[in-house]
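Design job #97: recover the sequence.
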């Protein structure tokens, strides 16, 4: 209850924050004018109030650095109270040249009553800020007449060539008749007398030729005062009658010692050109905690000024948090299945089922075989099926109930995944015309995504069978392997599954995986069926004929069925067979059934280890002949860790083969260690020991063979189809209940 109250409080706080953000942004856009050549209006104000026959005062500030707590809240009130005729920034009025910093400075300067002028300094130039300064304020170097005095501003950043500025400055001064002259250059001309913390050569005016030329002009034309910023301190020295000041205490970080403190400089000018100045020190520093809070506030403050992109990102963030909190607080959740669903009305009539898959026959693999068995089983129960699958070169010319989709990219005949053209209107139209009651998806991408789209468009339930551990297929994806394996694959499964109405998994271990990654939709454990009776009807003479054709004598035969691909871990078995050969005198032969893109490399590995007499890569075997090949085996060997069920293991058991497999999610629920086979960690020594045990112990092998037959008997295709059909009916019943509830 207490946690719920906290969540409610957070929800309302976020809701209020969103309202305030939108309101404040509206206020800023209505009341804050755009910046364009602000110096023009400021010069008009200066020349309209300062006359040559009267004295005037101006204040010089350096290193404002977008300070709110010091400059805006402390120094600006002091300046407004002191009423100088103008305020000059000696450089670094912004903390950086980004648009948000310039817009925030505009908001700060709007509190200043006297007119202002800015020096183009290092921070104004930073982050492509030069064109923003030019647009918002004016030229990077310029001159202003104030009464009987002249204020001259130079660009010390290197944006404008110093030779051009020197030529312009000398031409200006040679014709100038003002009685007092003030020069503002962002970088200091002299290093302070005392050591300056954190200062380096780049903080001072360079190149040296520019500095020396400028000093000669200062001496030649009797510049009264020179102001710079760029260092967080106050420093003053005389140079041939000129006062040279570095002022950097208007808001940036200071050390609060005898040289580095918050301040500004007050300059008085008489009609006769007599100049005096006074250092005005702000005695109170800023607490470090308040400084951090100011930085956080300025970050938020500047976001408002940076335009709509950052603003909408900020609002979207708070809205996302608000929605999540609303879901956690106000929406009730029922974590138990709905036991009131009645699937019977749907079970009593034929269903129309559309299946979407990224691979299908004639490609031989676990998913196509599983789909084909389910299709036949459902058709035997009276249902109407439409399989939407990629096209293949060797597909049958006519297939009832199969809609082939042309491929955008042919990755080769041995490729598991084909890039079917999901954008064809013809496909969408055919699925619509089929009028499915339910859509069954067998992959979370590509044609699976099209199937999910069609389910939403036709308003029918989408059922997804989790066949494949995507993280083990990272080597097929044009993305960084670790990124796909550890993040993208799991997020993709979670996102797709949670958009479906029901999930089918073949084993309890895969159901646990889906819960761990965050799948919350109803999940049903339903192993894929096998044609059990087909394995019992293989004639003995057919098996003997195959033995003769393969040149087999009295040796024991190991069989394995897998695609010749990295994720199937074939290299592990090759090395294990090489080890077994050295440990036993019992003759054996290992037949590896299946094909794939790694075949040539694996055959080369077999040849290197001289395993030709013990291991054979058989290649593809037609599905109708597989039962005979299984019957040929005395045991079934398996090392893949990418399976969600390992249907070939059940088929091997249906043929009476005990199994030795590497422990993984698809193996644990099927192989009962010591009963119908052995499962070991992926450690060659342990795996080889179990294989050797079955090879040399005839009585143990016969006992496990009987157990394997009994275990596989419960996984018939007929039972598989009936169970899946009931899952369909439950999904349809849930959809109807939800539709009736919503009116």
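Job complete. Output follows.
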């Amino acid at each position: 209850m207490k946690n719920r109250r906290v969540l409610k409080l957070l929800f309302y706080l976020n809701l209020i924050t969103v309202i305030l953000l939108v309101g404040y942004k509206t206020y800023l856009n209505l009341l804050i004018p755009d910046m364009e050549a602000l110096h023009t209006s400021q010069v008009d104000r200066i020349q309209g109030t300062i006359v040559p026959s009267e004295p005037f005062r101006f204040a010089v500030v350096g290193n404002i650095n977008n300070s709110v707590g010091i400059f805006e809240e402390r120094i600006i009130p002091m300046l407004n109270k002191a009423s100088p005729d103008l305020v000059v920034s000696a450089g670094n009025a912004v903390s950086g040249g980004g648009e948000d910093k310039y817009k925030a400075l505009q908001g700060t300067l709007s509190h200043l009553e006297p007119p202002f002028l800015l020096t183009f300094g290092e921070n104004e130039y930073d982050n492509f800020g030069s064109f923003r300064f030019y647009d918002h304020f004016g030229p990077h170097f310029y001159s202003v007449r104030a009464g009987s005095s002249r204020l001259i501003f130079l660009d010390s950043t290197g944006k404008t060539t110093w030779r051009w500025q020197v030529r312009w400055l000398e031409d200006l001064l040679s014709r100038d008749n003002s009685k007092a002259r003030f020069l503002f250059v962002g970088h200091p001309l002299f290093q302070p007398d005392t050591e300056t913390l954190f200062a380096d050569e780049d903080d001072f005016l360079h190149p040296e030729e520019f500095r020396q030329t400028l000093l000669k002009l200062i001496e030649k034309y009797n510049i009264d005062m020179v102001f710079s910023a760029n260092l967080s301190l106050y420093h003053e020295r005389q140079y041939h009658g000129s006062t040279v000041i570095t002022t950097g205490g208007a808001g940036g970080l200071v050390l609060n010692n005898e040289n580095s403190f918050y301040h500004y400089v007050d300059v008085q000018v008489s009609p006769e050109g007599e100049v005096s100045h006074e250092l005005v020190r702000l005695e109170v520093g800023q607490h470090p905690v308040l400084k951090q809070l100011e930085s956080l506030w300025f970050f938020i403050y500047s976001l408002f000024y940076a335009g709509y992109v950052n603003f909408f990102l900020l609002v979207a963030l708070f809205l996302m948090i608000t929605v999540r909190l609303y879901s956690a607080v106000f929406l009730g959740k029922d974590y138990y299945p709905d036991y009131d669903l009645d699937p019977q009305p749907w079970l009593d009539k034929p269903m129309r089922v559309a299946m979407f898959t990224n691979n299908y026959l004639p490609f031989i693999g676990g998913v196509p075989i599983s789909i084909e068995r389910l299709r036949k089983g459902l058709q035997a129960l009276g249902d109407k099926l439409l399989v939407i699958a990629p096209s293949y070169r060797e597909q049958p010319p006519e297939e009832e109930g199969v809609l082939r989709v042309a491929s955008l990219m042919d990755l080769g005949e041995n490729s598991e995944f084909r890039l079917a053209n999901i954008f064809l209107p013809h496909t969408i139209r055919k699925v619509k015309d089929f009028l499915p009651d339910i859509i069954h998806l067998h992959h979370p991408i590509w044609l699976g995504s099209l199937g999910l789209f069609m389910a939403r468009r036709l308003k029918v339930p989408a059922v997804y069978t989790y066949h494949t551990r995507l993280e083990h297929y990272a080597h097929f994806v044009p993305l960084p392997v670790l990124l796909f394996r550890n993040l993208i694959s799991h997020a993709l499964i979670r996102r797709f599954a949670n958009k479906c109405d029901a999930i089918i998994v073949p084993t309890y271990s895969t159901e646990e995986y889906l819960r761990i990654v965050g799948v919350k939709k109803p999940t049903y454990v339903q192993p894929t069926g096998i044609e059990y009776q087909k394995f019992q009807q293989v004639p003995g003479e057919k098996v003997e004929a195959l033995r003769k054709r393969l040149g087999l004598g009295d040796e024991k035969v190991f069989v394995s069925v897998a695609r010749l691909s990295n994720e199937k871990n074939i290299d592990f078995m090759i090395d294990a067979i090489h080890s077994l050969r050295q440990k036993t005198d019992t003759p054996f032969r290992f037949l590896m059934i299946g094909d794939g893109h790694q075949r040539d490399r694996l055959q080369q590995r077999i040849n290197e280890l001289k395993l030709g007499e013990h291991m054979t890569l058989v290649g593809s075997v037609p599905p109708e002949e597989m039962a005979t090949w299984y019957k040929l085996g005395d045991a079934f060997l398996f090392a893949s860790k990418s399976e969600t069920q390992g249907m070939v293991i059940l088929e091997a058991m249906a043929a009476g083969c005990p199994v030795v497999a590497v422990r993984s999610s698809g193996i644990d629920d099927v192989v009962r260690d010591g009963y119908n086979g052995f499962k070991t960690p992926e450690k060659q020594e342990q795996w080889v020991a179990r294989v050797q045990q079955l090879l040399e112990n005839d009585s143990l092998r016969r006992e496990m063979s009987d157990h394997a037959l009994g275990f596989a008997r419960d996984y018939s295709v007929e039972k598989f189809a009936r169970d899946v059909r009931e899952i369909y009916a439950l999904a349809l019943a849930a959809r109807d209940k939800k539709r009736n509830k919503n009116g």
